[in-house]
Amino acid sequence: MATHEVSLNITKPIPVGNVDIEIPVRRNGRAFGKVKISKGAIDWMPANKSKTAYYLDWAEFARFMAEHGRPI
């Protein structure tokens, strides 16, 4: 099974303003992609040098997770 590395250290709430938050994701030590979080949406950008990013606004993300996510 692949090992994923995701790092984000936050000690207090940080409002998301006009600048997106970018979270790099590594898989087995290599770049896998990045998640971008903004006030309006969440994006996934694969690390395969493609210019394609996958975008969901927060309502679409909530529906997608409810339909396809696993409860914890």
Helix content: 10-25%
Largest sheet: 5 strands, antiparallel
In spatial order, strands of the major sheet run: 1-2-3-4-5
Span between termini: 20 Å
Written as H for each helix and E for each strand, in order along the chain, the element string is EEEEEH
Radius of gyration: 14 Å
- General shape: globular
What integer is the average pLDDT? 89
Name the beta content range. 35-45%
Please count the beta strands (DSSP E, at least 2 residues each): 5
Low-confidence stretches: none
What structural class do helix, strand and pairing data support?
alpha+beta
Number of helices: 1
Describe the model:
- This protein has a five-stranded antiparallel β-sheet with strand order 1-2-3-4-5.
- The protein contains one helix and five strands, in the order E-E-E-E-E-H.
- With 72 residues, it is an alpha+beta fold.
- The longest helix has 11 residues, at 58-68.
- The two termini are 20 Å apart.
Structural key phrases:
single chain; 72 residues; alpha+beta; five-stranded antiparallel sheet; 15% helix
What layout of secondary structure does this protein have?
Blueprint: E1 4-6, E2 21-27, E3 30-37, E4 41-46, E5 54-57, H1 58-68
Antiparallel strand pairs: 1-2, 2-3, 3-4, 4-5
How do you describe this structure in short?
With 72 residues, the chain is of the alpha+beta class. Helix content is 15%, strand content 39%.
